[in-house]
Amino acid sequence: xxxxxxxxxxxxxxxxxxxxxxxxxxxxxxxxxxxxxxxxxxxxxxxxxxxxxxxxxxxxxxxxxxxxxxxxxxxxxxxxxxxxxxxxxxxxxxxxxxxxxxxxxxxxxxxxxxxxxxxxxxxxxxxxxxxxxxxxxxxxxxxxxxxxxxxxxxxxxxxxxxxxxxxxxxxxxxxxxxxxxxxxxxxxxxxxxxxxxxxxxxxxxxxxxxxxxxxxxxxxxxxxxxxxxxxxxxxxxxxxxxxxxxxxxxxxxxxxxxxxxxxxxxxxxxxxxxxxxxxxxxxxxxxxxxxxxxxxxxxxxxxxxxxxxxxxxxxxxxxxxxxxxxxxxxxxxxxxxxxxxxxxxxxxxxx
Length: 351
Hints:
mainly beta
């Protein structure tokens, strides 16, 4: 008899950002029971859990709004104790601003944070020492808006997607320099294969809005060969994809956004999104399941059995069994306006 995907999760916690909350909510990973909600500075975006320091990191990106439509960019990342559900420290990265993507190297005690560019310098990656919680360096990406960032399993190479620049920035993390540019149309989310041999990139850039009538003929997931820093394949998708995530079992998860016609608006309206599942090894699609409106962030349980998909417009998190592709539950995330549910992190119970 197959074990339930919920089994053995007692004491584990799922953390969820509400961008307009502005809050981080905590849920019991076994029962989905709401445990607590923590208020944080305005416009939290992404989350990253550091098991070595047992800290939850959260980027705060704008004072209000979102990319291309905001009232100003913030400069802080927040360190949170996930067990007491309290803020440990607010780390100011100024003059850097617009922090968004997070990637963690536990071996070297480094947290990487993507930041937006300004008139006097391009966008880049800020390096934070996770033991002192202080910035120690910056790596230029030569693009104005690096958004998502991921590192390979060795911790030597990082990849930044750039919404409007026509390339993915490849950075040498040991030398702290830009190493290559991989040509793709503007890009969204990304994920690195378990063995580090390939990088999967959602492209093109979705833009601040997209019309239901617009034909996204160029949509897809570009496959980059890490050795040659070149695109070697494209996985076709039915619509624009924003987030990508790689599970510990080598499944590539993609959040596909959809629009429906709206007679009262030329832009159309958000329709339910799709979670598409691919094998990273064979690059074959394994299936899909309906999720909330405008899936923007995806994570998974450490064992790769469950996927968590945040829909920023519906402000929901769908919990999906990746063996059966069944939606097991939907969490409603409180919001004060739009947008809603965004960053996600799975937090195993203390050892």
